[in-house]
Amino acid sequence: MARWTRSDYNPDDFANRRHIGPTPAEMAEMLKAVGAESLEALIGQTVPAAIRQTEPLDWPALSEAALLQRMREVAGRNRVMTSLIGQGYYGTVTPPAIQRNILENPAWYTAYTPYQPEIAQGRLEALLNFQTMVADLTGLPVANASLLDEATAAAEAMVMAQRVAKSKAQAFFVSENLHPQTIAVIETRAAPLGIEILRGAPEDCDPASVFGAIFQYPGTFGHLRDLSAECDALHAAGAVAVVATDLLALCVLREPGAMGADIAVGSAQRFGVPMGYGGPHAGFMACRDEMKRAMPGRIVGVSIDAKGNQAYRLSLQTREQHIRREKATSNVCTAQALLAVMAGFYAVFHGPVGLRAIAQRVHLHAATLANALRGAGFEVAPETFFDTITLRVGVGQAGILAAAEQRGINLRQVGDDRVGISVDETTDAGVIARVLDAFGVHDAPVPATEPAIPDGLLRESDFLTHPVFHMNRAESEMMRYMRRLSDRDLALDRAMIPLGSCTMKLNAAAEMMPITWPEFSALHPFAPEAQAAGYHEVFADLTEKLCAITGYDAFSLQPNSGAQGEYAGLLTIAAYHRSRGEDRDICLIPVSAHGTNPASAQMCGMKVVVVKSAPNGDIDLEDFADKAARAGDKLAAVMITYPSTHGVFEDTVREVCRITHDHGGQVYIDGANMNALVGLVKPGEIGGDVSHLNLHKTFAIPHGGGGPGMGPIGVKAHLAPFLPGDPRGGDGAVSAAPWGSASILLISWAYILMMGGEGLTQATRVAILNANYIASRLAGAYPVLFMGNRGRVAHECILDTRTFQAHGVTVDDIAKRLIDNGFHAPTMSWPVAGTLMVEPTESETKAEIDRLITAFLAIRDEITEVAEGRISAEASPLRHAPHTVEDLVVDWDRAYSREQGCFPPGAFRVDKYWPPVGRVDNAYGDRNLICTCPPLESYAEAAE
């Protein structure tokens, strides 16, 4: 007879049923392997009791359905208007094929930065398309992929200009026609570097007094100007010409390169990327060929693989900040790769003919408006423009802005007597009629047929001539192209990505869904705040919960990357010291710190003093105390990562904080390893004064092939007055938009709400369990480099592979062999050269972790075969890895079998991932640098 037994399975328990990988039964098996009686016992052995928080995180969890209902309610509090504010942000149409197949596709949004090029050929090609698009449209031969936004790209261009200029002047000229937020970010960047900013009209620039100048084209108020004379004059004085520009305008306007510009910057937002109340959007930079080695950010280049086939890779300054540290030219770490991919596909989707048609339609709509308003007696400027006009309306300004708002339209308030109008791709006859109605013009306008652009400023050169931009644009062909590229990549939707320090965890579908809802995606960042009440509810609750998690008192959500957060946090510390009349500029940084730490300190004008590591990987406390004492009243800050970059909880963290505070310095705790702290330790309670949080790590924003990211900073109360200011006019702005990449903050908020306080804490515990399980299972095969004082690692562990080099086996060989097993390699050679840093995260199931362990053990057996002389390193599958389908079908003359080479233990057979290229030749790519789409004949040559 059947008996009713009540199930304890809760299908609405998101944290334990959806986000956290191992089941309770699997955890019990793992704890047995680790040698811990319980999960809490393991945490007690791992995390020092003296730093554990006493109060639990206590908000309740929402189910996925309840979360989406809450999101709908919040979205409903936003008021979506037709935005004609412009100022660098425009309405755009995201082709549904791109929204569905790129933005909403985990094959694209869960990928990691393409540091392992063999498993990233798809997104590398997509980014190369983006670079080619930018280079073609700007008329400059080299572009990067990409920067954070237009304002930070302009700030990077200023520093790059100083680096390459022949002029020894210390000033930089900024045109008053730049977007205000761009000026604000440039000024923030210039101040700690001692760069004097000179502002004025373009004709006021004195080339002899500056190392460079930046102009906006088209200007923020719509002005068009041939900048050839300004560029020539700057060159004659040994200075550098920078032009901030608009890609859509360049489809019809003469390109900056043709005017003599050395560097061009801007945003690719209006190429199909929603405004999202500020981001994320791909900033871009292009430059003259001779300047390419000074360009910040990532550059995709073309190389060859081991068989001579064409292959893509990141070139030149990949991870420059990790290698050159405080001597790095930039701290750029996160790009906006996913958004650059979208913008590149937008250009592929429309092609040059389509882009030119869109640009012409936009311009003629603007001309129609200008003609009608002039005809009605309004003072309209300028005479020549692309998409933006500015009207002097005197005391009628408030009335006109209100009338437009009543008609569902936002116009730009300029000063106290002008109104700006910027039309865009979404503008149609109905929008034009509503705008005119707001100005009291009721007659139907006569559509303009002639451009308001002089012949000398019309584009004469071709662009996007590569065949990829001339594909058959049937959606079937577009869909297949996107699928072909994604099939070449390895992302989280295929396999575990066990990257130490990078926290590649689940990005749940429910967290991602709201970002494409129009109520969130279609808002302009400078829309009246009353229209964004839903967003501000999110900001307030997210800030409150982040304060509860971290022990800090206030947050700035503005920094739109982790490195940007470091920079903003150090600027906050510097401003605090200045307010007290103290001249402090020394920053102590352990040798184990993230590479962006010293680069960020240098950007803030601080002098970096490196602190040694003790043999066990901890900060050398004696060396630290000595250097803090020597710094004395010059000590500004110490930057530490906790748990340490070596993957352990250091018992001395409170002592490090005490010593720093005793000397008047501030403690910056890098939040990169927050995934080991949430619910267990609050950095603000153990001595931290400021931390950035990588929301694209701990708080579930996906990495997107290298970005987007967010790096908000939390501070104690005494630092709160010095947080980044509003880019529309406040001091200290670090990003173009007041709340950074606001739309992706929704993802972290959703994650926190669905996990609840208890779920977040359990996720941290399981992350630590998973890492210790790997360390325990692999300890006999690979030395674990650093263990805590109780023999435990934190949420990641470092496997030491350096002893294998004596047998000719390198860490590269192991990383590439893991591709054959269907895995992305762990973090290579950082923070210790010749090692692998493994972070499983809490999201991985025991089965996937066991598959990784199987792969590692099989590789260790292959290393043993080499060590015992049964096969040479050169002849082994380790050196030939990764194996492609081409390897499988050609004549086989190797010292091992096809089976061993192509189907090693741990690899799937039916669903095996095949890399599209063999091992990529990095040296060849740097010697023969090609950064735009190569001509078709090069594909044929590579295949021969």
From TrEMBL:
One Pfam family cited in the UniProt record for this chain: GDC-P
GO BP term (any one): glycine decarboxylation via glycine cleavage system
Catalyzed chemical reaction(s): N(6)-[(R)-lipoyl]-L-lysyl-[glycine-cleavage complex H protein] + glycine + H(+) = N(6)-[(R)-S(8)-aminomethyldihydrolipoyl]-L-lysyl-[glycine-cleavage complex H protein] + CO2
One example GO MF annotation: glycine dehydrogenase (decarboxylating) activity
Residues annotated as signal peptide: none
Residue ranges of the region described as Disordered: 1-20
Assigned EC number: 1.4.4.2
CC annotations in GO: cytosol; glycine cleavage complex
InterPro entries reported for this sequence: GcvP (IPR003437), GDC-P_C (IPR049316), GDC-P_N (IPR049315), GDC_P (IPR020581), PyrdxlP-dep_Trfase (IPR015424), PyrdxlP-dep_Trfase_major (IPR015421), PyrdxlP-dep_Trfase_small (IPR015422)
Gene3D superfamilies for the chain: Aspartate Aminotransferase, domain 1 (3.90.1150.10), Type I PLP-dependent aspartate aminotransferase-like (Major domain) (3.40.640.10)
Cofactor(s) required, per the database record: pyridoxal 5'-phosphate
Domain spans labelled Glycine dehydrogenase C-terminal: 763-883
HAMAP family: GcvP
Function (record text): The glycine cleavage system catalyzes the degradation of glycine. The P protein binds the alpha-amino group of glycine through its pyridoxal phosphate cofactor; CO(2) is released and the remaining methylamine moiety is then transferred to the lipoamide cofactor of the H protein.
Name the UniProt record assigns to this protein: Glycine dehydrogenase (decarboxylating)
Source organism per UniProt: Paracoccus halophilus
